[in-house]
């Protein structure tokens, strides 16, 4: 059996792990690379194998860094089945169409504004190419074994993180391989704790926060503090947010604060069509989260929900202090850019970062104290207050990752640490070896190992 790490190795994006066994090829996740330019450029490179020779794709969840390369895979010849849970299918569909639309728009803007280095800027994939992905999805139920081939089966179990996110147990050649996907937190505001594996011969564990312990901070209190401070200065609060799960978590906390009379009576805006669509997916998948229908309905009434871009323009030029939740979470694209063009240069503005910021993203640059940021070919001075609330991360920290391994009834032959930058992965490796004595490896991009 051969394992090849085609993405998500040495980086937190582009997750793709290829398994070859007895003539069958299985791809765990098919993510898009994000962040620094050398990573983004990998999205344009062909896979080292023909996509037409891959039999199955198994998706852990619907985030872009785990499903965002599917349109390229299909356009280059993949015709197999894409297995995932029902919420993952809905979220992946939402994210892929949104991603394609944004890429088409940005390519058009670059061509019209002539700020692309290419003679003609092209999208990585189009809406039309996404449409060809959707019929290949095959929905699976959590905790039920599915047969992929005569001697290959898989089980999807809850991983927390976002709706539908799963760990995948793959049974083949008499071995059990466990692919963690992204592990959620044991005490998440909306998601249930991840299911811990009981048996595994080989584990492929994400290490996004392998060197971090989430601060013991009260995210709700910090939101209250930042909003009231900005309001006292007459400023707007911009919260760049992942449209899936994070936006709904922030909405929930803001609704609670407003109900408790702890934040001012100003406009609360959610300006992410995808985030708004996600609310219906939450309503349709109550078994996957803690939010009741009544809470969801009451929460939504507090917010002005913007879908039309003209409403975005109106909100941007509304001079009143306001709280705006807008995608994208790492400020790599989406409507939040339009707000930042207007507000990032105003000292009364507060930008609240609420999730992981990959290397090379605008979000990471802002957290690291950048004096200016480039948006759509133009530089803007950063005079706004940049703050972050790490306690809202949907990723488990080092303690959560270590705890996730604690129910194993056998000693795995090896733990591969993936989906993490090198330092977090290495620090997690040391902790796992000290705590459990498990042998760990940190694979490099395109490395191949035999099991």
Q: What strand line-up does the widest sheet have?
A: 6-5-4-3-2-1-22
Largest sheet at a glance?
A: 7 strands, mixed
Shape by Cα distribution: globular
Report the average pLDDT across residues.
93
- Tally the helices: 14
Low-confidence region ranges: none
Counting DSSP E segments of at least 2 residues, the number of strands comes to 22
Helix content: 25-40%
User: What Rg is obtained from the alpha carbons, in whole angstroms?
Assistant: 21 Å
Strand content: 15-25%
Rounded to the nearest angstrom, the distance between the terminal CA atoms is 5 Å
Supply the helix-strand structural class. Answer: alpha/beta
Task: Give the helices and strands, then pairings.
Elements: E1 2-7, E2 16-21, E3 24-28, H1 37-42, E4 56-58, H2 64-67, H3 70-75, E5 81-85, H4 86-113, H5 127-131, E6 137-140, E7 146-149, E8 152-158, E9 166-172, E10 175-179, E11 202-206, H6 219-232, E12 237-240, H7 246-259, E13 268-271, H8 273-284, H9 293-301, E14 304-305, H10 309-316, E15 323-326, H11 336-343, E16 350-353, H12 362-367, E17 372-375, E18 378-381, E19 385-388, H13 398-404, E20 414-418, H14 422-436, E21 440-441, E22 448-450
Parallel strand pairs: 3-4, 4-5, 5-6, 10-11, 11-20, 12-15, 12-16, 13-14, 13-15, 16-19, 20-21
Antiparallel strand pairs: 1-2, 1-22, 2-3, 7-8, 8-9, 9-10, 17-18
Helix pairs in contact: 4-8, 7-9
């Amino acid at each position: 059996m051969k394992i090849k790490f085609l993405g998500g190795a040495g980086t937190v994006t582009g997750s793709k792990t290829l398994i070859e066994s007895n003539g069958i090829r299985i791809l765990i996740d098919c993510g898009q690379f994000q962040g620094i330019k050398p990573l983004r450029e990998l999205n344009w490179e062909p896979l080292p194998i023909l996509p037409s020779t891959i039999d199955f794709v198994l998706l852990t969840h619907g985030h872009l860094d785990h499903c965002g390369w599917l349109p390229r895979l299909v356009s280059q010849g993949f015709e197999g089945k894409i297995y995932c849970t029902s919420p993952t299918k809905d979220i992946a569909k939402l994210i892929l169409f949104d991603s394609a639309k944004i890429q088409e728009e940005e390519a058009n803007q670059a061509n019209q504004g002539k700020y692309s280095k290419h003679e003609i800027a092209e999208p990585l994939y189009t809406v039309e190419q996404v449409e060809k992905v959707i019929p290949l999805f095959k929905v699976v139920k959590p905790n039920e074994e599915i047969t992929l081939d005569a001697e290959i089966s898989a089980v999807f179990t809850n991983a927390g993180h976002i709706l539908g996110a799963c760990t995948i147990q793959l049974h083949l050649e008499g071995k059990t391989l466990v692919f963690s996907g992204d592990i959620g937190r044991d005490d998440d505001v909306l998601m249930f704790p991840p299911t811990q594996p009981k048996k595994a011969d080989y584990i492929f564990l994400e290490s996004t926060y392998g060197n971090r312990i989430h601060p013991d901070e009260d995210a709700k209190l910090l939101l209250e503090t930042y909003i009231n401070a900005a309001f006292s200065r007459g400023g707007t609060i911009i919260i760049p947010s992942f449209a899936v799960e994070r936006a709904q978590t922030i909405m929930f906390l803001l609704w609670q604060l407003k109900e408790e009379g702890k934040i001012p009576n100003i406009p609360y805006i959610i300006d992410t069509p995808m985030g708004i669509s996600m609310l219906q997916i939450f309503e349709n998948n109550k078994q996957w989260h803690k939010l009741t229908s009544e809470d969801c309905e009451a929460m939504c009434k507090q917010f002005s929900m913007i879908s039309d871009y003209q409403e975005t323009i109106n909100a941007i030029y509304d001079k009143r202090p306001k709280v705006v939740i807008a995608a994208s979470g790492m400020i790599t694209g989406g409507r939040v850019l339009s707000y930042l063009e207007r507000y990032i240069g105003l000292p009364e503005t507060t930008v609240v970062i609420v999730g992981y910021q990959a290397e090379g993203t605008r979000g990471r640059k802002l957290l690291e104290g950048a004096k200016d940021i480039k948006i759509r070919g133009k530089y803007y001075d950063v005079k706004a207050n940049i703050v972050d609330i790490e306690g809202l991360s949907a990723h488990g920290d080092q303690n959560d990752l270590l705890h996730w391994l604690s129910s194993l009834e056998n000693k795995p032959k090896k733990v591969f640490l993936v989906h993490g930058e090198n330092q977090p992965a290495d620090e997690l490796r040391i902790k796992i070896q000290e705590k459990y004595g498990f042998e760990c490896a940190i694979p490099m991009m395109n490395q191949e190992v035999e099991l």
